[in-house]
């Protein structure tokens, strides 16, 4: 899935308020501490990159993302970090370049996640940390699960196929298949809120990530059905959203 046309500010409004607090929990789970050199694969607008730079120093951190707009935003926000336009399946770094390679909320968007994990292992030194996390779509615990449910229950939309990393054990299995040792898995939970339903609806109607194109082509009556079902699910506000991600870590072979 492409984020090429998504503005960094819109992504922050939609997902950044969840990915930022999640990043700290994820870095703790991965055991990130100085001195180390770390890579953020699929850095987006820089939620995890910022945490890594804060712990290790900007010059010890690199990031890649295929969306040029996101890369430009991270370069502007975090001077000194080596941020490049690149895909997870073809990382522009030498073997054993990093002590830790992390990927937050990316695996489920990859065209070839197993190739990406092979690349992630390749650029991580032997014994270094490899880790990834993805929202738990299996149990509807993503931040936008209520919106997706409202669409699913209100209009004729094909169900979203199960994506890599979004169910228990998937990330751990992929790390193991990539050769990682001492693989462990956990759940990471964050809580965020919005003042009222209109604010909640506005960010979901942006059509970003897993919500992209969900409202495309709907007439006014269908849109209202989705909106009313969403209101039934989340209420008028204040709206508190609890979101949980699967996270897995291992050591590179």
TrEMBL record:
Pfam families reported in the protein's UniProt record: Methyltransf_11 (PF08241)
Keyword Methyltransferase among UniProt keywords: yes
A biological-process GO annotation: methylation
InterPro entries from the UniProt entry: Methyltransf_11, Methyltransf_Superfamily, SAM-dependent_MTases_sf
MF GO annotations: S-adenosylmethionine-dependent methyltransferase activity
Entry superkingdom: Bacteria
Gene3D superfamilies in the cross-refs: Vaccinia Virus protein VP39
Keyword list, A-Z: Methyltransferase, Transferase
Residues of the Methyltransferase type domain: 39-131
Name of the protein in question: Class I SAM-dependent methyltransferase
High-level lineage: Bacteria, Bacillati, Actinomycetota, Actinomycetes, Micrococcales
């Amino acid at each position: 899935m492409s984020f090429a046309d998504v503005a960094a500010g819109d992504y922050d409004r939609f997902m950044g308020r969840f990915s930022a607090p999640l990043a700290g929990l994820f870095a703790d789970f991965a055991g990130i501490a100085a001195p180390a050199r770390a890579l953020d694969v699929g850095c987006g607008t820089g939620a995890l990159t910022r945490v890594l730079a804060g712990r290790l120093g900007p010059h010890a951190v690199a990031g890649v993302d295929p969306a040029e707009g996101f890369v430009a935003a991270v370069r502007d926000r975090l001077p000194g970090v080596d941020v490049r336009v690149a895909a997870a399946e073809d990382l522009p770094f030498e073997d054993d370049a990093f002590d830790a390679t992390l990927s937050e909320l990316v695996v489920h968007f990859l065209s070839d996640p197993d190739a990406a994990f092979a690349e992630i292992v390749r650029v991580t030194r032997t014994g270094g940390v490899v880790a990834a996390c993805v929202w738990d779509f299996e149990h509807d615990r993503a931040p936008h699960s209520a919106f997706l449910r409202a669409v699913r229950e209100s209009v004729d939309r094909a169900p979203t196929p199960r994506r890599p990393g979004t169910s228990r054990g998937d990330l751990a299995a992929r790390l193991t298949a990539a050769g990682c040792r001492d693989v462990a898995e956990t759940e990471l939970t964050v809580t965020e809120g919005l003042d009222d339903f209109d604010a909640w609806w506005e960010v979901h109607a942006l059509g970003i990530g897993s919500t992209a194109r969900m409202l495309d082509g709907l007439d006014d009556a269908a849109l209202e059905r989705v909106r009313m079902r969403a209101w039934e699910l989340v209420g008028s506000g204040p709206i508190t959203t609890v979101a949980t991600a699967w996270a897995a870590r291992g050591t590179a072979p």
